[in-house]
Amino acid sequence: MNNRNFPSAGLPLSLVWLVSTVLLCAAFIFAAAPRVDAQGREQEKTQSTAQGQTIPLINTRDSRHYLSIIQRVFDFVQRNYVEEVDPKILYEGAMTGMMNALGDPYTSFLPETEMSSLNHTTQGTFGGVGLYISKPIGERADGKPPYVEVASPIEDTPGWRAGINPGDLIISIDGEPTDVLSMDDVLARLRGEPGVELKLLIRRGANLEFTVALKRAIIEVPTTKAAMIDDIGYLKLLTFTPMTVDRARDALKDFEGKKYKSLIIDLRNNYGGLLNAAVGISDLFLDGGVVVSTKSRLASENNVFNARSRNTIPKEIPIVVLINRGSASASEIVAGALKDRGRAYLVGEKSYGKGSVQQVYPLDENRSGFKITTARYYTPSDVNIDKIGIPPDREVKFPEFSAEDSEKLNSLIQSNKIPAFVEANPQAAAAQVDTFARQLQGEYKLDLSLVRRLVKNELNRTSLAPVYDLEYDVQLQEAVNILRGGNYTNLMKTAKTLKTLQEESDRADQTLAS
């Protein structure tokens, strides 16, 4: 996303590219980044701003006509409404309606509260619960209430430690239903003074519903985690900030010192971040060539981003990339680049499917603003994955709950037995956890590994979570098996680019249609 200046605002232009994903409940996270200058010149009719930038010049008869109507209605309401009207309310309402009319979930008006959050969070910390969320505009197409949906939790934050997962719905906050709240209202309730307790009613799937109590904390968004799995380097990228490339390079150097033979890059639940950080990460593994391109009706937004002709990681190091439905935007750029360039094998679930680029324009002396989609990005094989996602080369899903299991699990959660056990045994040893899990398994007739995981998750709420959990993480297990199985080279030969997969899908659709 770019943070640019709206022509009438008279503010300096900051060319900072961010690839945004979904709104976050704790706050918007827009990290400061090295500048990436837009390439190319406007090919259509433009006008210059005071800062020497150009914008499309739209001055048609229809535009003037509708602007005149809006101005007349604005004035009429102020003069004739039964009560005195604050012009700011009319301004924000008109701006919100105009952006929402585009039907783009990533284009929106940013009132003062959100612009303030943007400015505060660039300092690196904020008070919140650590959840990235989205919320439908108006009624959902399927007729269901437009509750807040969790896109992904930030690791080692209150939301993550409470066990909230991507795809969970937040039904209410402190008893107040979220379907009737605006995104501003939701953010105002979830952000704020650290230490304040909130109660969220969570719905998971069709049948499971439970209440989570969590306290706001100072959220410092981490960027990487790294560890060795025997001779496999495990690098988890949590988000893409100005520090991500340096932190990843440090981890890779550490792996090299420990004689790693292969690499797992974990992009699961990575909501995105800086475009140039995604390019920089891809650059570590690619020897020149295209990483990603952006395309727009504006010539200045058409860019091709290339890797340098020297990669950091030797070509002979096998790489597996983990993705899931929480992998979005900048993480999809990395996954798409490494897949299309034949550099990595993808394991997990189809990614989120966010393939567009936004810019932020300040307004009204930077008190408010708006963000608007200005381009779409394309993988090296020239595919846009917006609303489609990136399919893994090998799909691996976590077990889903049946209606009966959901009822049993709901009963276990409502019993509060696991939190009570952890409170009484905060340093419980593995044998003690196993004994307790077997007791619950016998009582509730649930899978033993699931019960063990619930107990360990509760224990992790009050301690630093492990970098990985090979015992329960079936997707990570599969990645390790692929790298250890000796068949990686053959698997890479059968992997297809996104362009090939798209063409095969189109042919299949045509066959069905005929």
Task: Describe the structure in your own words.
By secondary structure, the chain is of the alpha+beta class. The protein has 15 helices and 24 strands. It has helices at residues 61-80, 87-100, 112-121, 158-161, 183-190, 244-257, 275-283, 330-340, 403-415, 417-424, 430-444, 448-460, 474-484, 488-494, 498-513; strands spanning 2-3, 18-19, 46-48, 54-56, 108-110, 125-128, 131-134, 148-153, 169-173, 176-177, 197-204, 208-215, 217-220, 224-229, 232-237, 262-266, 273-274, 290-295, 303-306, 319-323, 345-348, 356-363, 368-378, 394-395. The strands form six sheets. Strands 1, 5, 18, 19, 22 and 23 form a six-stranded mixed sheet that branches. A hairpin with a 2-residue loop joins strand 14 and strand 15. Helix 7 (275-283) runs parallel beside helix 8 (330-340) and helix 11 (430-444) crosses helix 12 (448-460). The longest helix has 20 residues, at 61-80. The protein is globular. The two termini are 42 Å apart.
Give the SSE map.
Elements: E1 2-3, E2 18-19, E3 46-48, E4 54-56, H1 61-80, H2 87-100, E5 108-110, H3 112-121, E6 125-128, E7 131-134, E8 148-153, H4 158-161, E9 169-173, E10 176-177, H5 183-190, E11 197-204, E12 208-215, E13 217-220, E14 224-229, E15 232-237, H6 244-257, E16 262-266, E17 273-274, H7 275-283, E18 290-295, E19 303-306, E20 319-323, H8 330-340, E21 345-348, E22 356-363, E23 368-378, E24 394-395, H9 403-415, H10 417-424, H11 430-444, H12 448-460, H13 474-484, H14 488-494, H15 498-513
Parallel strand pairs: 1-22, 15-16, 16-20, 20-21, 21-24
Antiparallel strand pairs: 2-17, 3-4, 5-23, 6-13, 7-8, 8-9, 9-10, 9-11, 11-12, 14-15, 18-19, 18-23, 22-23
